[in-house]
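Holo prediction — zinc ion.
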Amino acid sequence: MPHDLPKAYDPTAIEDRWAEYWVSENLFAQPTPTAANQGERAGGQPFTVLLPPPNVTGNLHMGHMFQHTVIDILTRWRRMSGRPTLWLPGTDHAGIATQMMVERQLTSEGTSRQKIGREAFIERVWEWKRHYGGVILDQMKRLGASVDWQREYFTMDDRLSIAVREAFVRLYDQGLIYRGAYIVNWCPRCQTAISDLEVVHGEQKGHLWEIRYPVVDADGKDTGEFLTVATTRPETMLGDVAVAVHPQDERYLHLHGKKLRLPLMNREIPVILDEWVSLDFGTGAVKVTPAHDPNDFAIGERHHLSSINVMDDRAHINAEGGAYAGLDRYVARKKIVADLEVQGLLAAVKDYTNNVGHCDRCKTVVEPRLSTQWFVKIQPLADKAIQAVEQKHIRFTPEQYEKTYFEWMRNIHDWCISRQLWWGHRIPAWHCGVCRKITVARVDPTACAHCGSDEITQETDVLDTWFSSGLLPVSVFGWPNITAETRADFDAFYPTSLLVTGFDILFFWVARMIMMGCWFSSDVPMPDGSPRPLAESVPFKEVYIHALVRDANRVKMSKTKGNSVDPLEIVSQYGTDAVRFTLASMASPGTDIAFNVARTEGYRAFANKIWNAARFLFMNVDRAAEIGITVDLAALGSMPTVPADAPLEDRWITDALHHVTARVNASLENYRFDEAASEIYQFFWGSFCDAYIESVKLRLEFSENADKARTKSALTTLVSIFEASLRLLSPFMPFITEEIWQSLYEGDLPARSVALSKFPSVELNWLTANSRPGIDSVIEMDFLLSLKTEVLALRKEIGVEEKVAVPILLWCALPSFKKIIDDNHDLFIRLAKVSEIKHAAMIPPDLAKRIGSNFEVAVDYAKPRDVSAERERLTRDIAKYEKGLAAAERQLGNESFLAKAPAQVVEGLKKQELETRLLLEKARAALGALPKD
Ligand SMILES: [Zn+2]
Ligand SMILES: [Zn+2]
């Protein structure tokens, strides 16, 4: 057979093959559109979207699969609609995650990064990346993501690193990068500062310790009086430099200007006055530890106090901690509390629920700690980014995220961009050993820019990963090297069209891309040389924030809970297409997805239906070929049309295709993947497979004396509607549509892939031009189909055997409906298994009838009676009723049951007894009335 599709649909047999073909053929490579290469596919404005770069250490989870499905549907749709389309893939070097991975490897080898040194360690990370990195991209290839693999990037690539360095140097030169002592969230496990956003807060049961600080006189002698302070972290007292009270606090007026002896450390510290201190919290006296608490740090700044950092990178007490040096923070806490108790200085220990910050990555309790960090003075960048959204140069879907964005951007703090890691973009700043000044440069300097000394050493910190990913929209298109020669990419693809991402990185990433995109691209002139306006400086025009994928019970998927679904496993079970379709069908904006395998099973059945429709169609095409009828495949590829006098089913399915096409395009335009999927599903399954194929079968005749012109016209419509439906479905189910579409053309392809064919579209005026008021095909076919439904229901009700065609009595409300039936007589009797249509002025009252909006119908059929079967049934029923009745009577005669049972149970039982008795009498009468054999 020329078209050989295997009998059963088996996704695993076809998907690997096409996934490989798409990659090896570079099918989705998007060359830079230039005047020279804009051929027939020059469909205007390019559609550009960046893949939110997964961590290079990442593995594909359901959230990725959902996000990639949404992006892939949109890019395939835009590409097929004729726009030059670029989906750009890449991975993030993921500072902390990757460093942790390699450190673990080193630990297992009995060594550590400190032992092998920075250079060797970085070499090891690259080594790791070459071996294990980017697994997720291979998984994307398998799932058919239509990205341009030739443009794949890595955030540590030389090209992208140049952009990072340029951005840093420019901000530094503009006075927007500074170095400062600051309280940061320090993770003792990761040994780096982490941003506020990477700290997860959670309530934790702890204690509030009240400690008595002795008041001393001018000679440093104890006065016998104490000032009691309260703390949740007693170990920080080692770094106390003062105790603050509110200036108006009457309890402590006599202590103004006095000094205290810091217990355990025997250091004199002053009592200071600060209005920030709350009169009602604890004792109203607050110990001040500027190096270990953000509020204390602020007090310290106001009062020009020194800061004593008492912990090292691992949160062990350092040399500043006297007798406690070397102890872990929690070990030190225990010992300090015990020592205070021995000295009689522990006033009280109270239970206290504390809001404690944990490292998002390793769950270690974060230690607020003073350190010197690098910051971006964020205000000017934020102002521009706020303006861009206020002026609607960027549109958020769902809209509510615009508000979230503004809230965050209007309360933004300076951005701490340094991380104490080795893996990442090392900060391009050099410290001078002689003049102590800093040299920041685009090219590694050999001497201090201030004093000329060659005693310079590079900063050891690296940049926050989001610093480089925030630059991606400009850096991937060549910034900062935008020259006359290299600028084609930037001109064509910047600003990108759309960003599809999760709400969890709205601030981490989306906001930073907007700030950095607007800031840095504004220097790049427009293609015509004019200055770049804000509208063209934004990194993307639209942001679509997608929902989360949860389990079937709407619980967030997590490995620890064991409720996560492995996308590759589910794909191997049901096929990528069915999983994609499930995700699309549930993707309405703002609603989380409760992923349910039952739905995937349903869409697997849908794929099966499509497969079987294709097999039916190919079988008919091949049979037609045997008698010399061929369908002109070269005429396919656009929107099918039929002549005005074509048979009803042909006009109807063509109209229906136009309608569904218009709705699918509109739904995708509005990110309503759920609506688009549902439209296609209903059309393909209900209209095309169930109604149209059933209808058109009548005209597919292949005998020698068949009307060949009729067969050919039927086959042509069938094939052209099917082919257009495949194109419509292709962005949602790329694999099965590719397989069938390629098979249909038997190697004589109009394009290398269905994904490069034209997406169905409807001229704006088509729907108005083709509505024929009164009797258009939709009204006609709807009438026939609803009449058919009622007739089939009546047949079932009466118990007509499957194969028997029966006469019907039909009353129509209007002559026009009578005409529809008459015009489509042959079609209808076949669809509804009718032998004869008798028009009637009214339906006789003794016939069971069905009433539609324009008709009444009855089946004129008396079922031949099978007396012996009826006798058998009645005898069986009588036995059943007798048994039930006896049981009820027994129970109602049981005195002790009646005494104990609730009234309503007894009532129910009596009612049941009565009903059974009536049924029994009826059955006995019916049996008696049966004719004798
Ligand atoms: Zn950590
Ligand atoms: Zn110097």
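READOUT: Residues 33 and 492 are 7 Å apart (CA to CA).
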